[in-house]
Amino acid sequence: MNEFAVYPSSGFYVMKAMITVPGLMAHIMIGILIGIISAAILFVSIASRKWSPIILSVISSVSILAAGISGLEFMFGDFTNNSFSFSMSVFFVVSMISYSYMIFALDAPR
Question: How far apart are alpha carbons 109 and 10 in whole angstroms?
């Protein structure tokens, strides 16, 4: 699905796209799964009672939540406002950078 294509602006097309485009539905379901995993990582890092993982997982969880909201805004905006699509990708990249730092830097021997 080309997200930078111009679609007709009507709420009917958004619902039709959700039903008839399996790639879009898979994208939404993977996003929900990533959000659930992010919440689990946040709870585990809170249980560890170490500030660095807590801060990084909060940054990641907020970034994933913001990416999801941006994606919904892009979808319910009839796929016309590309800034929401761009912000969705930027927030996802921020969360991946935060998780990468959590994996490689915090687990290093001291």
Answer: 55
pLDDT digits (tens, 9 = 90+) for 33-54: 999 999 999 999 999 888 888 9
CA atoms within 13 A on the CB side of 76: 6
By the 10 Å C-beta count (0-12 exposed, 13-18 middle, 19+ buried), 45 is classed as: buried
Domain ranges of the chain: 57-104
Note the pTM of the prediction, 2 decimals. 0.77
Alpha carbon 15 to its chain centroid, in Å, reads 21
| CB of 77 closer than 8 Å to CB of 84 | yes
DSSP letters for 51-87: HHHHHHHHHHHHHHHHHHHHHHHHHHTTT--HHHHHH
